[in-house]
Amino acid sequence: MALNCPKCQTELVRRYYKGILEVDSCPACRGMWLDFEELDHLEDLSFDQDDFKGSLVHYPDKTSCCCPHCGGPLTEFQYRLYSLKLDACLTEKHGFWLDYGEDVRVLELMDRHKDHYERKISAEAEWMQFLEKIKTGSFLNNFRDFFK
Ligand SMILES: [Zn+2]
Ligand SMILES: [Zn+2]
Questions:
Q1: Closest ligand relative to 32 C-alpha
Q2: Interval 37-72: pLDDT, tens
Q3: Which of 58, 127, 128, 142 gives 20 to 30 Å between its CA and that of 10?
């Protein structure tokens, strides 16, 4: 069955995105449809620590666009609390619609997320080293020396 673009009704064509993900893209408006788990795969190209991504859907709001699979209304939502809005078939979990350029935004946001995550991890590592120092007494010894 042919799928139609939820935005401009043009028939979608299958293509490979970055040679990895199989997506349905619109030759007219250049948006693309990702199956439900493919958004996660797209994010993973930048950042793959799923536990630290935060929740995906915020402020969902029904739109008048239709899911190419079931024809049900797509829900617009704020993507992971960033200033990016995506559309999805959330009722049937068919997938996500990304307008032209929104895939790049997703990857940028995941890159930023990854930076935060790595900074947090290295801060935690420093904290652990600090605790280790206290445990071994070198920290307290230094203090004692200080108050002599
Ligand atoms: Zn289109
Ligand atoms: Zn659907």
A1: 1
A2: 999 999 999 999 998 888 999 999 999 999 999 999
A3: 58
